[in-house]
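*** Query protein ***
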Amino acid sequence: MAMLYALVSTHSGVEDLSSPMSMKQMVSRDVTVGARKNPIKSGRRCGLTGKHGGIAYKYCFSHKRATKRQHANIQTKYVYWPEGQRMVKLKIAASTLKSIEKKGLQQMAKEAGIDLNKLPFKDLRPERKEYLQKNQMQVPVSKKKVTGHFRNAYRMKNPEKLAASKKTPIEGKYYHGRIIFGRFNEDQLRQLNDIPLEDESQIVYEEGVDVEDVSAADQA
């Protein structure tokens, strides 16, 4: 009766939200709304040529025949894209590498309907290499203004207090492959750079420097 009532209500223009049919129509199956979609389809298939596996036969000693799945040699490789000056990550067959050398990566991607700008990449531009050379072991900071109610409400705005403030800006540091943000003093920076702290009890003085011996005074 419930299913019959749902059919009658949908045909009459009145939608019953309690019926299973209307709930199925309301739920959206597109879970990638607003997300970055990968133009290369999943599965054991070449992203540029569409090459995939097929059905083959396998034989035993008595020559009995059985079917098996014969997959294509699909590899995930970084391929250089000359027009974009970057290494693009692709899932391609091993035989596609020869086709890329013959036609070019951009032409094959155009035929396959793939936008190379949307794929994971390694930037190889000269200006990028120059930037990394100048800013070694420095965490990049976004130039965009940090927004938010609490950021603006509790931010120090008095110029006199800002000039007299001893707080250092929050900065990021690399530590064993991780990024740590905070305000660091000299000892903490030495620890982040794996430099041992100075032990004051084992300070070695240079020759010819007069050092007062206070050990006798302490014993007395």
Observations:
- The chain is about 30% helix and 20% strand.
- The first helix runs from residue 2 to 11.
- Confidence is low (pLDDT under 50) at residues 1-35.
